[in-house]
Amino acid sequence: MRAIRTRSQDRILNLLKNIKQGISAQDLYIELRNHSQSMGLATVYRSLEALKLEGKVQVRTLANGEALYSLTQQDKHHLTCLQCGLSIPIHQCPVHQLENELKSSHKFKVFYHTLEFFGLCSQCQEISQGIGDR
After folding, report:
1. Residue 91 CB partners (closer than 8 Å, separation 6+)
2. Which helix (H) or strand (E) covers residue 87, if one does?
3. Is there a binding annotation on residue 121?
4. Tens digit of each residue's pLDDT (9 = 90 or more) over 80-121
5. Are 34 and 57 found together in one domain?
6. Are both 3 and 47 inside the same structural domain?
7. What is the domain range of residue 40?
8. Does residue 67 surpass a pLDDT of 80?
9. Does one domain contain both 81 and 62?
10. What share of the chain has pLDDT > 90, as a percent?
11. Residue 81 labeled ligand binder
12. Is 93 assigned a ligand-binding role in the annotation?
């Protein structure tokens, strides 16, 4: 059974369909305003939360604390640099089998999962090594 959605939730879903990457709630708010679909920032947050609980939207929190929202389509895996913020997607899923086992053993409905490794990208490692050589 489909949940009853508000117009605000439908507008957010439609906008997210056209955005191919994660977007912050504040940027989503600006995009809606730019498309003459203005709504309050609090409404954007409430709508995103409702869509997340429905399994339609997923959220990814970056190392700096910023939350990025996108449609729930596929599992997301990244290598994230703590120094420059570079985020490198990992295309293979190393935990897919574990997810299936947990769904079965715990009778848990999984909407999506994320896996993120934090460290330094190669460029930031070179910069750090260069500083240490002085």
Report:
1. 77
2. strand 87-89
3. yes
4. 898 898 888 888 888 888 988 999 999 998 887 878 888 999
5. yes
6. yes
7. 1-72
8. yes
9. no
10. 42
11. yes
12. no
